[in-house]
Inverse folding.
């Protein structure tokens, strides 16, 4: 399977990018092909201007060259993965802007839906799992990403995975998180088999 892996973090030397590297290694070891899109280093502009504003009056709007390029990139892949730090119990503005601009009317929703078989949302959260469960932030993210975004755009196989306690600098915690990321790649076809 060809999987587009989109990474959003301002620093290359971050746990987010280490997780991305282990995840894509898992994909490769499972025989998948992946392309990694680094939103920051690619120069992607997350700000939506008039050229990319959704237009429900037409099914064939031509978007800005930057967005058309990203739409073509998505079309070349069978499945998707998004890796990001969890900020304010959601993804960063850079990734939100990417979704706003690229998952657009006539391509991702409206007259057409996304063709992708699966999407994985892999977030890195500084708080412990108990904190997310106590306030139901995990359920909120599940609903928002799986139903509100992926489901709305035609992807029924959507899964949110959160790696917790990412500020814990103990080596055993870091290695556990990286192992989880690797297994999510290795068992991308069936995450129920992933060993955590």
């Amino acid at each position: 399977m060809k999987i587009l892996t989109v990474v959003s973090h301002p620093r290359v030397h971050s746990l987010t990018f280490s997780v991305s590297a282990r995840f894509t290694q898992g994909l490769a070891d499972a025989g998948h092909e992946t392309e990694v899109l680094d939103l920051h280093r690619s120069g992607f502009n997350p700000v939506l201007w008039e050229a990319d504003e959704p237009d429900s009056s037409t099914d064939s709007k031509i978007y800005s060259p930057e967005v058309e390029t990203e739409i073509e990139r998505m079309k070349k892949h069978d499945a998707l993965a998004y890796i990001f730090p969890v900020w304010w119990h959601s993804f960063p503005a850079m990734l939100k802007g990417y979704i706003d601009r690229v998952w657009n009317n006539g391509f991702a929703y409206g007259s057409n839906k996304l063709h992708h078989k699966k999407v994985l949302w892999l977030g890195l959260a500084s708080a412990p799992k108990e904190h997310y469960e106590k306030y139901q932030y995990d359920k909120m993210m599940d609903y928002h990403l799986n139903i509100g975004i992926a489901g709305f755009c035609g992807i029924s196989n959507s899964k949110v995975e959160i790696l917790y306690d990412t500020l814990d600098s103990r080596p055993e915690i870091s290695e556990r998180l990286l192992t989880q990321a690797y297994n999510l790649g290795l068992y991308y076809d069936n995450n129920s088999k992933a060993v955590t």
